[in-house]
Amino acid sequence: xxxxxxxxxxxxxxxxxxxxxxxxxxxxxxxxxxxxxxxxxxxxxxxxxxxxxxxxxxxxxxxxxxxxxxxxxxxxxxxxxxxxxxxxxxxxxxxxxxxxxxxxxxxxxxxxxxxxxxxxxxxxxxxxxxxxxxxxxxxxxxxxxxxxxxxxxxxxxxxxxxxxxxxxxxxxxxxxxxxxxxxxxxxxxxxxxxxxxxxxxxxxxxxxxxxxxxxxxxxxxxxxxxxxxxxxxxxxxxxxxxxxxxxxxxxxxxxxxxxxxxxxxxxxxxxxxxxxxxxxxxxxxxxxxxxxxxxxxxxxxxxxxxxxxxxxxxxxxxx
Length: 319
Fold this sequence. Notes:
Helix content is about 50%, strand content about 10%. It is an alpha/beta fold.
C-alpha cells in the first residue's frame, strides 16, 4: 500500500508542482491601497454560503470537453505579455464561461465534501481538475493583460478558494493537489505584480492563512517519510506567498525612495516576511539598478527537489 501511495504522490507532484526557476521581473513602484486591507485573496467568511462546493466542481468538470487543448492553453500561459494572444484567449474563454461561473459559485461555498480518491480514480481526477485550474489561470492572465486588476483579483480569490477546498479533503493526495493549485495561482500573481498601475497586494498576501494548506492530521502523517514531505510542501507554498509579499514590500519602498533598498532591513513601512522553509530572512542583494531575491533549496534536498523548492527573482525597477 505504501508503494502505491508513493507512486501516486510522485505522479501528483509531477502534475501540479512546477519546478523552481529564475523569474525576471520588471516592477513599478506602488503604494499601499487605501484602505490598506482593500483587497482580499479569499472570500470573506460572512459572504460564504452554507453550501457544499463539491457538486459545483463536479458540474464544472462534466462541462469540460474530452478533447480540449490543454497543451494550447499551457503555451498561452507561458507566452510573454507582448505575445499573449488576447483575442484568441477571449474567444476561448467565452466558450467555457459556464465553467468559470461554476467555479466562482463554488468559491463562495463554506464547505467541500470531496469523494475518496484511490489508485483507480486518481489519474482521471488529476487531469480534470488540472483543466479547471488552467482555465482559471488563463482568465487571470487575460484580465491582467487587459489591466482589469479588480477582476483579476477576483479570479485569484476563486483560485485560492479552490486550493483551500481541495486542501481540506480527507486524504494526503487532496492536500497535495491543494498545494499545487495554490502554487499555480501564485505563478499568475508573478505576472500581476509586474503590470504598471497594478495595486500593491502586500496586505492582501499578508492576510492569507499560514499554513495555507495544513497537511497535518492525515493518516499518512504518522509515517516519518510522509511527515517530512508534508512539511516541505506546506512550507513550499507558504514560501511562494511570502516571496511575493517581499516583492510587494519592495514596491512599497520604491514608491517612497524611487529605488530598491540596499538591504531588506531598510524596509520599515511594513514587516518583511522571513522564508518559511529556512526559518530566516530571504537571501537578498541590491545590484545597483536591480536586485535579486532568493530562497534556496532546503539542506539535504536532492538535485530534483532543489529545483522544485528553490525560488529566484531577478528584479528591475521601472517608473
